[in-house]
Specification:
The chain is mostly helical and 77 residues long. Helix content is 86%, strand content 0%. Helix 1 packs antiparallel against helix 2. The chain is elongated, with a radius of gyration of 17 Å. Keywords: Membrane, Transmembrane, Transmembrane helix.
């Protein structure tokens, strides 16, 4: 995504929103890992065991996007 079309104010707002969403997503993933471990212990292997693995790449992508936004903001100063 090209961040050069955004204003500095829009980038700052986008970064703030992205940070909040990233924190929420990390909390959800940690909870999913906890519940998947509990579910695996109680019921054995199931879909719930591997569910957090589908969400981790999305969080990694979000983290990379946050880094790109920060880099763009630094380059504009």
């Amino acid at each position: 995504m090209a961040f050069t079309t955004y204003t500095k104010q829009e980038l700052t707002k986008k970064l703030k929103t992205q940070k909040k969403m990233f924190a929420i997503k990390c909390v959800v993933i940690v909870l999913m890992i906890f519940f998947s471990i509990f579910s695996t212990i109680e019921n054995g292997m199931s879909f719930h065991t591997f569910l957090p693995l589908f969400f981790i790449p999305m969080s990694i992508y979000m983290f990379i996007e946050m880094k790109k936004i920060k880099t763009e903001l630094v380059s504009r100063k």
